[in-house]
Each structure stands twice: as C-alpha cells, then as structure tokens.
Design goal:
The structure holds 2 protein chains of 2 kinds. Chain A is built from 1 helix and no strands. Chain B has one domain: Four Helix Bundle (Hemerythrin (Met), subunit A). Chain B is built from 7 helices and no strands. In chain B, helix 2 packs antiparallel against helix 3. Chain B is globular. The model of chain B has no long low-confidence stretch (mean pLDDT 89). The chains are: A mainly alpha, B mainly alpha. At the A-B interface, helix 1 of A face helix 2, helix 3 and helix 7 of B.
Chain lengths: 43, 226
C-alpha cells in the first residue's frame, strides 16, 4: 500500500510540476508581450 | 501559428476532456477494476505505469517524425513539435521508470535490475535528456535546429528496442499485450484502455499547448533579430 501511495505521489507531482513550469513560462511570455505592446504604444 | 489555428483552438477541448478522462479513469482504477489476487491493491500502479510508458514511447516517435520532416522542409513548427514531444516523452518515461521501480521493489524485492527492458528504457531516458540539454547548449538557432533534428532521428533507434526488449530477450518484465490472451481480466483490460485514452488526450493537450508556447517565444525572439 505504501508503494502505491508513493507511486501516486510521484506521478501527480511529476505532472503537476511540469504543468507549473509551463504556467510559469507562459506568465513570463505574457509579461514580455505586454511590455512590448506598451513600448510600441509609446513610440 | 495563428490564434485561430486548429492546434490553438483544440487546446481547451483537449485539456477539459483530458481532465475529465483522468477523473473517469480514477473511478475505473479504484472502483471498477478488481483487486489482483497475487499482487493485491499494489497492482493498481500498473494502470499509471503502462499508459505513461506507452505515451512516452509515442512522444518519442513524434520527435522522430517531426525531426525527419524538419530536415526535409526546414519548417520551424516541426522543430517546436520535436521539443514539445521530447519534453513530454522524457517526463512520461521518467514517471514510468519511477512507478516501475516501486513495482519492482514490491513484486521482485529489488529496486532495480539490469533487465533488457529496464536497461533500454534508462538508456532511452538519458538519450532524450541529452537531446533537451543540447537544445539549450547551442546559441545559433539554425544550427541548433539542424543538429537536434539529426539527433531526434538517430535517438529513435533505441525506442523499438525498448518496445521489443521484453519480447526478444529473456526478461522478467512482462509483455502485457504480447502474451497470449493478454493475461488480463476483461475488467482490467477495460480499465487499462480507459487509462490509455485519458492519458493520450492529456498528452495531446500538453503537446499542443507547449508548441503554441514555443511559437510565441520564437516570435518574440524574432522581433529582436534583424
């Protein structure tokens, strides 16, 4: 039973970690796009 | 890639269907599928292990195909697809290895053995980890794409070995769908198929999302290249 719990933890931590990484990258890209839009408006 | 492309439009549907599919798969794993007589409840690791291993291998097949098409067409979309599929494949095969070692400890009383299936899977994992490291190591994007496309094609040589290793050589790892009759109860087989479908939809959703993300990243970078 312990191994089953550890298996579940490993799987969902792995998937969750990768989704978190994707969300972080997307957040940075959205910020960069907003900065570019602002600088384009100013010019 | 435009915001109206098929890939972009399909991401929300794939994400929702994948999430619902995984919830349904939990019902099949914990309620519908019977408890296996020998291994007991621990056998349920199998319902995570097998879909992750399969979709990992399929992701590496996508890397192979998209790398090959990139070498012919030089279409950057194919390069982005290669990177996305390599990341998903590495994650899934890593999780398959992790769940496999837990299974091995419980079933065979060892964490690891240099069995053909396990060894070829570990070699495959390191090859694709090296592929992703290489992508970050070359500054010139044109050179990086070309070199990684070649590696994406060559790296695939190991993948059929992983699939066939348990069938070709003496291995303690079972070949579930290779043995006569599959060796699974009908309820277990249904559960496995539901899990494979659910993880497959999620794989497609993650893959498409990452491709779109890499596309945006490239477009931002191209703004500063004159």
């Amino acid at each position: 039973m312990t191994y089953l719990i550890f298996g579940n933890i490993a799987v969902w931590t792995g998937i969750g970690g990768y989704l978190f990484y994707l969300a972080t990258v997307q957040k940075k890209l959205d910020l960069r796009v907003r900065q570019l839009e602002v600088s384009a408006d100013e010019q | 890639m435009s915001d109206n492309s098929i890939i972009t439009r399909s991401i929300p549907a794939l994400a929702i269907t994948g999430a619902v599919g995984l919830v349904v798969a939990q019902y099949f794993i914990w309620v519908y599928a019977p408890v296996e007589a020998t291994m007991g409840i621990l056998q349920k690791i199998f319902y995570f292990h097998l879909p992750l291993a399969w979709w990992g291998l399929i992701s590496f097949f996508v890397v192979f195909c998209s790398s090959l098409v990139f070498l012919i067409s030089k279409n950057p979309f194919m390069d982005r697809l290669s990177q996305s599929a390599a990341e998903v494949g590495l994650l899934f095969s890593g999780l398959a290895l992790a769940t496999g070692t837990l299974w091995a400890r419980a079933a065979w009383n060892i964490w690891w053995t240099w069995d053909p299936r396990l060894s070829t899977t570990l070699v495959m994992w390191f090859i694709y980890a090296g592929y992703l490291v290489l992508r970050q190591s070359i500054d010139n994007p044109h050179k990086m794409r070309a070199v990684c496309a070649v590696l994406g094609v060559v790296a695939f040589l190991n993948v059929p070995l992983v699939f066939l290793s348990a069938r070709m050589w003496r291995s303690i790892h079972p070949a579930v769908f290779g043995s006569r009759g599959g060796g699974l109860e009908p309820e277990m087989m249904t559960t496995v198929l539901v899990c494979i479908a659910a993880w497959g939809i999620l794989t497609a959703g993650i893959l498409f999302y990452r491709v779109r993300q890499l596309d945006l990243k490239d477009r931002i970078r191209n703004l500063f290249i004159f």
